[in-house]
Write a structure and sequence with these properties.
Layout: H1 4-25, E1 31-35, H2 42-58, E2 62-66, H3 74-82, E3 89-94, H4 96-103, E4 115-130, H5 139-148, E5 155-157, H6 163-175, E6 181-183, H7 187-196, E7 202-205, H8 206-214, E8 219-223, E9 249-257, H9 262-276, H10 279-288, E10 291-295, H11 297-318
Parallel strand pairs: 1-2, 1-3, 5-6
Antiparallel strand pairs: 3-9, 4-7, 4-8, 4-9, 4-10
Helix pairs in contact: 1-9, 2-9, 2-10, 4-11, 6-11
Pfam families: TctC
Protein name: Tripartite-type tricarboxylate transporter receptor subunit TctC
Signal peptide: 1-23
């Protein structure tokens, strides 16, 4: 008859063996990277690049799963919160992930405490855009035109609470103009109307907007970084365009459900770190107008806390909220 001690020892060895097996086996099937928006947007583009590089680097399968619905990606993000914390369901979202709870009291999750923070992966500035028919070539002159004829100008954003929305609100506040910002369902429709002259100002990531600037369909008044972007060296910073310095980056991170399995967490951290810090990933991100922004899970959580405080100032000042 076995003693209680021997039974406990055997159980401990079995548990340890099981944990090692789980670590060795993960992932044994496809890992789903949930993008809480339709295909074709900037978040989707970054997710597909990451999924492709992770698949190639690890020899495992990582796929993008678009689950659109709800302002700020609430539906897709909620699905991840409810998923098993086994590492097979991840969330990739942009900076709007921390803005949504600031503007919507009905968000059914806590972005700081209901997720496991995996990694920060990328960041990039926005282009502040107008139609080529506008005479102004810098922000100072643009807002002078707005003040002279406020009825002739419409501002827009491709996503309510997005980095582009906050950038436009910050510029409005400094310029002292009070023009509503129209929300579009995605960058495509907004850019189409900007090109067509129905709207006269928006800020958007380079991935979706820079091709239109290079083709002459849009005019870039500024870039929302403290230094000029090597992708658009002729576009001045906000400060060079005649206003106070403004840094508003669109940044991207990866999260998993709360209580993520330690073996999966270790594997994902190592795989994502290897991809994001590689020269190959950096080169491909540059085409998108972004740079790698690798942050560990704890670093990402601290970064989110700092960004939330900064965004809250803009949100409160502009009165941005979901009714």
């Amino acid at each position: 008859m076995k003693s209680a001690g021997s039974i406990l020892l055997a159980a401990s060895i079995a548990a340890l063996s099981g944990g090692l097996a789980a670590a060795a086996d993960f992932p044994s099937r496809a890992v789903s990277i949930v993008v809480p928006y339709p295909p074709g947007g900037t978040v989707d583009g970054v997710a597909r690049l990451l999924a492709a590089e992770l698949s190639e680097t690890t020899g495992k399968t990582f796929v993008v799963d678009n689950r659109a619905g709800g302002a700020g990606g609430i539906v897709g993000s909620s699905d991840v919160v409810k998923a098993d914390p086994d590492g097979y369901t991840l969330l990739l979202n942009a900076s709007i992930h921390v803005v949504t709870p600031l503007i919507n009291k009905n968000v059914p999750f806590d972005v700081m405490n209901d997720f496991t923070h995996i990694a920060g992966i990328a960041a990039g500035p926005l282009l502040v855009l107008t139609n080529p028919a506008i005479k102004a070539n810098n922000l100072k002159d643009f807002f002078a035109e707005v003040k002279a004829d406020p009825e002739g100008f419409n501002f827009a954003t491709s996503g309510y609470g997005s980095a582009g929305h906050l950038a436009v609100e910050a510029l409005k506040a400094e310029a002292g103009v009070d023009i509503d910002v129209v929300t579009y369902k995605g960058a495509g429709p907004a850019l189409t109307d900007l090109i067509g002259g129905q709207i006269q100002l928006m800020a958007d990531p380079m991935l979706s907007s820079l091709p239109h600037v290079k083709a002459g369909r849009l005019k870039a008044l500024a870039v929302t970084s403290l230094k000029r972007s090597p992708l658009a060296p002729d576009v001045p910073t906000v400060e060079e365009s005649g206003m106070k310095p403004l840094e508003m980056l669109s940044w991207y991170g990866v999260w998993a459900p709360k209580g993520l399995d330690p073996a999966a967490a270790s594997y994902l951290d190592g795989a994502i770190s290897k991809v994001v810090t590689s020269d190959k990933f950096k080169e491909k991100l540059t085409v998108f107008g972004f740079e790698p922004m690798y942050k560990t899970g704890p670093e990402l959580k601290t970064f989110m806390t700092d960004e939330t405080a900064r965004y809250k100032t803009i949100v409160d000042s502009a009165g941005i909220k979901v009714e």
